[in-house]
Amino acid sequence: MRTVRVSKKGEISLLVEQVAVTLTACIMTLSQLDGILEGWKVEGVRDGKGRMGSWDRVNWVGKMGVLEGLIGKLQLQKASLSLMVTILTWFVTSWSRYEDVRC
Fold it and tell me: Lowest CB count within 10 Å: 4, 28, 34, 37, which one?
């Protein structure tokens, strides 16, 4: 296995790029979710009466699988972002400690 040495600055820029890609994926997933929900509005719920007709309930059951998949995708993306923020925080604190020692 070959090892490549990368500077701290290079490591952080790679991680920032990964955060940007993951954020873009989150936005795309949210857009898909919004498109599904926007395209399927229930008149009774939108009017504030809070009632669904029989056909609306059938449609809801049909869409649940897709919605659950998108929600699961968002949860995975959230976990990825959380991990990346933790790593970025560690990089920043360790880099600042390194700079303090070096000066």
Answer: 4
Tokens for 55?
Answer: 């056909």
Residue 60 is part of which domain span? Answer: 11-94
**Domain count within the chain:** 1
User: Distance between CA 91 and CA 98 in Å, rounded?
Assistant: 10
Q: What number of other Cβ atoms are within 10 A of residue 25's Cβ?
A: 16
pLDDT digits 0-9 by tens, 15-58:
778 888 999 999 999 999 988 887 666 554 555 566 667 777 77
Coil, helix or strand for 46? helix
How many CB atoms are located within 10 Å of the residue 39 CB?
8
pTM of the model: 0.65
**Within a domain: 90:** yes
Q: Which two three-digit tokens encode residue 40?
A: 């399927």
Task: Name the DSSP class of 5.
Answer: -
* Helix then strand then coil, % of the chain, to nearest 5: 85, 0, 15
